[in-house]
């Protein structure tokens, strides 16, 4: 939120008087209505919070002033700081209703929005529009207030006025409208208005793009596909619509639709390497190896100089068991300026996939410490050494890499995180915690170290401390999906606070809807809640996307409880082949099918 405009003080009051009275009650020059993070609104409505506030006023001190305009302004600021938005809105409205100062009206509108007094915000917006008929902020306020009040026709009129008053920023207006619908409006109304926007603006490219994005986020896949298709038809030379259509097809799991979109995009934009590599990958995913190989060969024949395309092509060639083509792509890539390090990295990754540690060591050790790929190469090496049963060599390698004077802060963080993880994997939990704490002290905002610390505490059976760390992480970073999922899964696994667990896992899935780990957590939660069919749906989706032993353990248990015992045994047998040492799987087998536990997996 911005302070009262010094260029336009309230009539009859000097700037000096305002400043003096503000200092008396300790408000300084700042304002304290809640920051924008609490409600997402179009930027046409300014809700930023300036610095410099030193709040010490009390309601008793405020009562000492005559209840004139300055009293209401100071009271509005005081109640805003106390998060009593109803009172803040009331006091600001008292001034705004009799003021011709646009800045005062805008401030009062902010308070009304945070108080969820959309009727008042609408009234003040009408007054602001009367003072300044072409004011885009007034139109934006009228639109969001009308949406909140369920007045669709009024919202439509306000959106039209907003578009007219700021006709040079059509894309910005629709993007901000979409942001409000996604983040602030009640979901059912937001979905309904998204459908309404699609029908109102069928020939408006910017509107259809926003509708496609919103529909995707709301899971309205039919609408998402239709809007993306309209956008492609409206502007066939714009890449955004093609990119959206590909994301939608991938979310739907419709590989053939992804191929169709990528073919159109590749034909329309033959110089865009991402469409060529995307089409090769999609054909591989569909099992169309021959057509994927043919496109790969044609791509190499045109002698591309796109580094990203050459990187992808080399990896696809390895997947197709064509090392000759992979080397052709890598040789061309290596000739491009600044690409030798990434070539060493790719060769090292491929060697690791083939379990050739010596070749991996040779390639990865050639990645320069000055390279942006250095930390990644060292982390890959450490992981390989741990997998080979050489945790001490992994630790020493990471510690040596950290001593390099050529790495930057981002590399330091990546290497320290890998070191903490390596120590934990090798059972040196206290040392891992020490590294995590050092990193947290050095980089308080680097959330992944808190997550690593929590995981280490879980390994030490210190669940309470781990949960506290996760709660602190989420408080600092509310959009940290891995932490949201970890805490939600923990609560579900411990069969407590299941409503909170559902909220946490839901937030993680909203950020990353297709993440198999989060789907596993959802399935396990539904199992704890007694909804076996919902549990099976989520767990099957997770296991299909990323078959691993822990998800298999969960899916098998729910199948067993549902009476599908042969299916459960089949999943557990597959999971043992994936990882016979997984503790979750072994614990599950001991409870339900001890005959499947390997001889060396007994307690």
UniProtKB/TrEMBL annotation:
InterPro entries: TPR-like_helical_dom_sf (IPR011990), TPR_rpt (IPR019734)
Source taxon at top rank: Bacteria
Gene3D superfamilies: Tetratricopeptide repeat domain
PROSITE patterns: PROKAR_LIPOPROTEIN
Region ranges (Disordered): 38-59
Family matches, as Pfam families: TPR_16 (PF13432), TPR_19 (PF14559)
Biased composition (Polar residues): 46-59
Protein name: Tetratricopeptide repeat protein
